[in-house]
Fold this sequence. Notes:
Layout: E1 11-15, H1 24-36, E2 41-44, H2 55-62, E3 70-76, H3 82-95, E4 101-105, H4 110-116, H5 124-143, E5 170-171, E6 176-177, E7 192-196, H6 200-209, E8 212-215, H7 220-236, E9 245-253, E10 278-280, H8 283-295, E11 301-306, H9 309-326, H10 339-343, H11 351-355
Parallel strand pairs: 1-2, 1-11, 2-3, 3-4, 4-7, 7-8, 8-9, 9-10, 9-11
Antiparallel strand pairs: 5-6
Amino acid sequence: MTSSHGRRLLHLAAAVDQQSVYDADSYVALARLAERGGLDFVTLDDAFARPGPDALSVLSRVAPATRRVGLVPTVTTTHTEPFHVQAAVATLDWVSRGRAGWRIDVSATEGEARLFGRRNAAPPDALWQEAGEVAEVAARLWDSREDDAGARDAATGRFNRRGTLHHVDFTGSTFSVQGPSTVPRPPQGHPVRVVDATEKHARGTAARYADVALVRAVSPAQLAAVRNELRETASAFGRNPDDLRVLASLVVDLGGGEYAAEPGHGGGGPRPTARGPLYRGGPVDLAELIAAWYTDGVTDGFHLTPAEPRRDLERLVNGTVALLQHRGLFRTFYPGSTLREHLGLARPANQYAVAGGTS
């Protein structure tokens, strides 16, 4: 999508994580706020290593209470069955009418492994190789039922017309899947896949399979280096690098009023913290930083984690987003209804239908 000036509009997303909050209405309220600001999507993190609600279940509850904003839960590929993961993400795409994403992550600790008792913890490279295999088999399973696989065959009176179901027959390093999926092909074809590509171990998987890569960076130069690497690797895998959206990922503390709470900390840019790059300032300063990094061409947009969920998301939407809209850098309405449309990504063709495969 481009602006009236012929310039591609930037993409904005926000986390709706809330510590020790299990009330679904609280997540609904944050998602609706993000939707009012026209944000592409919201994320909800999840991990076996800490307590919290199941992200995919929470966003399945949020789905019918929202209309346009994308919904992206974290779902780990470690210690989970790939067949169940793809079916759950496909179901979220159906209940949200095409607004689902999947933030792919891995579980690296021995403590997480003991929760399941199936295997020991593995090195990061092996875990991300497995994550890539799960992403691959998920796409195949989403395609294992063609778009009209639920149509009634007039000749036989049966559903699932001949030739519209396909066996996957995939063997990975730790699992094998035959298929087909039990869930019809999702409205988006493939729900949007998101990977945090900050760490080197994850970059190959992100470049090969992700639609959106998140990068935690404290400077434009750091972000540009990772973005260039991702795009070059994507091209080496035979992908069009323009099909990969790379977003800068920042924690934002907007409690300091309209301008920077600390000289040099707001307008001066993010600082490294244990939670990741932290931007502390006001909505005006944040809008200036977003505009500067985006117009310099180092990012396709931003994924922002509010330090204080309700306060900072309100200031982001009412202040920062409004200023970016006024400058013509961000949309004032959703041009479509699916997350792929928000991101300017085409709906993938079914690989089996294109290949003319048989069931």
